[in-house]
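S.,

Sequence below, as promised.
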Amino acid sequence: MAGMEIFFVILIIIGILVYNKTIDFKKFMIDNSQVFDLLKEDNYEFLLYAKYGDRVDVDTLFQKRITNAVLIACIFMILFMGDFNALNFVICVVVFYGMFKLPYIQLNNFYKAHLHEIDLMLPYYLKGLEILVQHYTVPVALGKSIDDAPDVFKPGLKKMIEKINAGDASVDPYMEFANTYPVRDSMRMMRLLYRLGIGSQERKQDRLMMFSRSVSSLQNKAREVKYKERLGKMEGQTMTMLVTTGIGVMIILLIAMMSMFGA
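The prediction came back faster than expected:
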């Protein structure tokens, strides 16, 4: 009991110090930002943009991850204070790492769960891009497409355009975009888009026609998938209704039979 009382007293003292800003977690984070940035995952920003859009404050959310993990680890350290040893220290480190990684795992799971939706968005984005490419060069068309692009594509597009504008004339920026969004035919479409931006004007027309046919094919596939999903949903609802109706009829018949035998 005494141990728990000490724990609550220390917790209250820490709370007062934080409230009075004697302990300033924000300043601590800023002062040690270079150290904490080493813990940041390579695709963390992208996953945040994919879930919340490109207006999300990445630094604030990352600081929140660190702060929450440190606080939970500190609570465990206080709990173990009466008998602190190497094993308890390892437990505190594991707790810190687990709490720190949890938001990232949740973001990753969200992205994987919505990968199918991204798959269906890509053909319609490419169709709008195709119209722009008819009037502008590929890099300019990509830049103009950002405003109307789905939020999930905006971070990848901005990164690709930055690399192209920095002088990277290779296929790498396009392939990086395709790897970021590993959906159906993304690799093939990015290669076609890259080829569309090189060569003479005559070659561009031929490649534009090929790109257009590929986009139309992807749109048709997306429509088929949506139709099948809608049909499957309707079939599921119909089956549920039939089963519910059947069970209801059986219950009514059973009640009627019991009433007859009772009479």
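The first helix runs from residue 2 to 19.

Coffee later?
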